[in-house]
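User: For my dataset I need records formatted as: sequence, then structure tokens, nothing else. Please produce one.
Assistant:
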Amino acid sequence: LIIEECPVKVARHQFGCRVLERFLEHFPEDLNSSTMAGLISPIIDETVMLSRHKHGNYVVQKLLEHGSEEHRNCVVRSMLSDLPNLSMLKTASNVVQQALRQCSVEDQWALAERLLTARDPSLEDIALNKFGCYVVEELRGSYLAD
């Protein structure tokens, strides 16, 4: 199956991304199996690229929503280095918002710390960006909820 051989390529395909999304939605208990690990691991490895992609970002969002705590943690860790830039992109900002909603408190703190200490772009730049402002709003909501 092509989905097992090239999950990242499938994630970037207009219809393939939907197949992966349905796998993630309907088989969350199987995500830690060895079969699914072959699908999930490459997606996690390419989180930053997929977050920027018009179709791939939906797969990463579904992984954040339905994946295990370990999956969410791996996604967050892979995003941290480029988080300020991702927050300002149309598709990637949705992934960042989903991470702020779905991740553990520890991962939310890691995301918040990275955004609050960002220099180029700064948090102000992100807040003034037409996509970044939604990330800042989600960040604000996360802190007010606690």
